[in-house]
Amino acid sequence: MLLRPIGLLRTALLGSGFQGRDASVGALNDALAGSGLSEGAFSGASLFWGLLLGSVGMGLFIYGKKNRRPYPLVGGIVLSVLPYAVTDSWVLGFSATGICTLLWMLRGR
Q1: Taking Cα atoms as reference points, which of 61, 66, 62, 65 lies closest to residue 76?
Q2: What residues form the membrane-spanning segments (predicted)?
């Protein structure tokens, strides 16, 4: 599932002979139309959320692993994987806020 968007992008760019930007964008839109993925999967907002949550998740994971604390460890994994599972930016933002709030409430345990 994680490699599907990469495969679609490769097919769109290389499968069409890469005849310039307009042809590759058209091929990418054609590939997305038949895949069930939305164009929002490649939006700037989803890339921003993915970078932000991946960084915070990696930091939490490293902190939890070094200090042997299970909640930050699992929370870091969930925050790192969440952008791959959720494509809507609003749902992603609210989900990440909920997970971070839960981790904040469990910080003393």
Answers
A1: 61
A2: 47-64, 76-106
DSSP conformation class of 29: H
Residue type for position 69: R
Domain assignment of residue 33, given as a range: 4-38
Q: Tell me: do 49 and 98 sit in the same domain.
A: yes
**Shared-domain flag, residues 18 and 63:** no
Q: Quick one: which of 2, 18, 21 has its CA closest to 10?
A: 18
3-state helix, strand, coil in the chain (%, to 5): 75, 0, 25
